[in-house]
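New to this. Please check both lines:
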Amino acid sequence: MALVTSPHREATLESRTLYNLAVEKIKRNNFREALNHLVQALKIAPTNPVYRSYFGYCLAQVEGDFDRAIRFCKRASESRPMDPVLRVNLGRVYRLKGDNSSAHAEFLGAWRVCKGHPAAAAELTRMGVRRPPIIPFLPRSHWCNKYLGILRARLERRLLNRRSY
């Protein structure tokens, strides 16, 4: 009796292989090659949210097309809201774009979904603890809070340098 495999099953196996290659390339900071593997994986499985999410992250890294990358990552995250990996990728794209507030919210959301998730914890640690704004009734993004926060950080660094002598 011959074993018959369907083309769909082989395509899924092929797309997983391409995805695994892409993840290895991402770990080595080779985003361009990872992007190529993900393009091929998405041709086979265009609706896979994990592939779409990693594609968005690589797109932001390679081409700097943040709006398109955010759309890919958001759609993926919305289709699987309880998947911390998808939220971490969206947060990484926000951070690359310079939107640290949105990035922090996504990393925190991923951590809340799965408190033991190493990528979410690592990204939150990398961002550091955010302090409250200097003028609490103004938004964090207001120019007064931005510049007073920069001034506070500089003064604290100088004070710490003086204490170490």
In short: DSSP finds eight helices and no strands in the chain. Confidence is low (pLDDT under 50) at residues 1-10. Residues 7-27 form the longest helix (21 residues). Residues 133-165 form one domain.
